[in-house]
Every structure is written in structure tokens, then in C-alpha cells.
Amino acid sequence: MGLLDSFEKGLERAVNGAFAKTFRSGIQPVEIASALRREIDTKAAVVSRDRILAPNTLEVSLSPDDHARMAGLGTALLTELHTLVESHAKAQGYSFAGPVSVSLTADPQLSPGTLRVASATQEGQVSWRAVLDIDGTRHPLSASRTVIGRGSDADITLADSGTSRKHVEILWDGERAMVRDLGSTNGTTLDGRKISEAPLTPDSTIRIGRTQIVFRVVAQARPSAPPRPPRPSDATQVFDARDRGGRG
């Protein structure tokens, strides 16, 4: 299975089947992925015998109509695009000068079915943030203790009758994380194994009731200088989705 096939299937799962209904016309998410991959390949530069540097700041401009459709996916699309960029770079042996940033913007000068990609290399320090991905929504863990359940007094409230009012808590000290069941009725599993409490590793999956919760630790930029966004002169491609033969 190719990288873009994996992306499309992953996105379909992330948006719970809304993919086919929402994107029958105009820009397709897989076409954004293809354009990003081509931009990275085009801009990758050999800086030493053992290092090929790829741009890590990527901005995709869309027509207002296409941008509105993509925005309807919430964080699911950006999460999948970010994962695809990093996976493609790893497969090609590219490295980045700093954390990867992918953004989508609306440009009234673009017509529906077209997009423009601008990119730049932005150096910076990396800090790490813990997040929970639940039903396509990303919840940053800013507190040391986060309670999840169906009760209105939980920090993250779930519309899931299979969960207790206060079902689990996630403990995060900035470096390590732990999940603890709070005496729930239906119990808690971590990567398919029933637990009362256990340490969390990145990309592990907690299930409570019918809800899956994925714990992730993501990089965020802490630039040493004010970041320079991609400029129009950085753009190397304008992609017209009406020419479906351009999908890579």
C-alpha cells in the first residue's frame, strides 16, 4: 500500500466515514497530501553527504470554498497531513531543521479546485506537549491531572453512556504520563489490556465505553528568532485539482 493510499484510509477513519460525502468535488484531501509531498521533494537540498534538508514549514492556500470544506474536518485533516509529511521525509531520508508545521489558509484569488503550496526552512528549538486525540478532536494536557468521563464536572466530558461520570484520570508531569481508572463500572483498557493504572507511552490507545483515546506527545516550535512565514516567492507549485492526472 502506497503512502497516499495509507493517508486516504487513515483520513477516512479519522472523520468517521464523512470523507466520501464531503469531498466529491473541488480539492480532495489526498490531493493536498500529494502536493505537499511534491513540494518537499522539490525543495529538499543536500547540505552534506549524510544530510538532505527538507522544508519544515508548509502553508497550503486554497479557495475560500475549498478551505471551508477542509475546515469542517477539524483537527483530523491537519493531524493526518502532519503525519504524512513526517512519514514521507523518513522514507526518503530527509531531515528537518526544526519541528514540522502544516497550515491551511484561504486565498480569495484562487478558484475552486486549485491550491498553492509555499514552504520554508525554519530553525528553532523543540518543546514537547502531551495531547489526547478523541473522536477527531485534540485536547492539550495543560494540567497535571485531567479527568475524563460523561459527567459535566469532568475536565473532558464524553457523550458516551458506556462511561462513568468520572471514568479515568490522566496524570502528566511534563515528561511522564499515567492513566488511572477511577473505579468505573465498565473498566478501562490500554492497548487492548484491562488495567487499573498504567504508564502511558506515546501513541498508546485507551478505551473507555465506546470511546477510544489516543495519547500523543507532539513537537511544537520554540523559535530562537521570530518565525518567517512562507512567502509567495517561496511557492513552486500551483496545483489544479480539475486535472486529476496531477495527483501523485
TrEMBL record:
Domain of life: Bacteria
SMART domains named among the record's database cross-references: FHA
One Pfam assignment: FhaA_N
Spans annotated as Disordered: 221-248
Organism classification: Bacteria, Bacillati, Actinomycetota, Actinomycetes, Micrococcales
InterPro entries: Cell_Proc_Reg/RNA_Proc, FHA_dom, FhaA_N, FhaA_N_sf, SMAD_FHA_dom_sf
Record bears the keyword Phosphoprotein: yes
Ribonucleoprotein found in the keyword field: no
Span of domain FHA: 146-195
Annotated organism of origin: Microbacterium limosum
Protein name as annotated: DUF3662 and FHA domain-containing protein
Keyword annotations from UniProtKB, A to Z: Phosphoprotein
